[in-house]
Design goal:
This protein has 251 residues and is an alpha/beta fold. Helix content is 51%, strand content 15%. It starts with a strand and ends with a helix. The protein has a 7-stranded parallel beta sheet, with helices on both faces. The chain has a two-stranded parallel ribbon with strand order 7-8.
Amino acid sequence: MKALVTGASSGIGADIAVELGNLGYDLILVARRKTKLEAVKRRIKTNVEIISMDLGSTFNCMKLYEMVKEEPIEVIVNNAGFGLAGEFAETSLDKELDMVDLNIKAVHTLTKCFLQKFRERNKGYILNVASSASFQPGPLMATYYGTKSYVYFLTTAIYEELRRENSSVYVGCLCPGPVDTEFNKVAKVEFKLPSLSSEYVAHYAVEQMFKRKLVIIPGTKMKITHFFSHLVPRKLKLKITYKIQYRKIRQ
């Protein structure tokens, strides 16, 4: 058994890799930071291959696929991504386009490539990591919320296509709320709500993936929040989200 995890150098990606290793999966870990990947490798008892690569390049995504397509990979976890906070008119366009490349184009490319392979075998698991941000617009983190909405809607649409052809291939979407990871430092935000540990989120995600859950939302509070968010009028939701984001970035 073998699994490939992107964004595996820290946080949720690293802990999902450890969880899969504990289940007996050999791992292919992909991220930019080789030193961090080597540290994750030391936490895993099964065989681990490290690939240091920037997946913000579509060329690199295709290169990665060509490198591993003959491997007996059964699980793909598309976790690589980052965030950026601030008013849309003032944030860096270059950083936002880099975010689109990594959060959207890399997920899109790897999902399509491996889905085609999995459909031929009629088995395999693809877990795309989105966010609770997937479910609504996010003023002051507009681009990040937009990228995660793309991942959410892409994944759920593919699920229905697979269901209608009675495919045994699984595709699902992990949508966590606040998690204590490096993401917060990169995005320059600080959550006021209690954060879940990445270890808990990873364990729950892997467990629910193998139960073939379509949308995976760790934590009871986030499940309740998601349920009641459907009852809030759109413009009121925007005002609430803006205030939450403002408090996170004005520390």
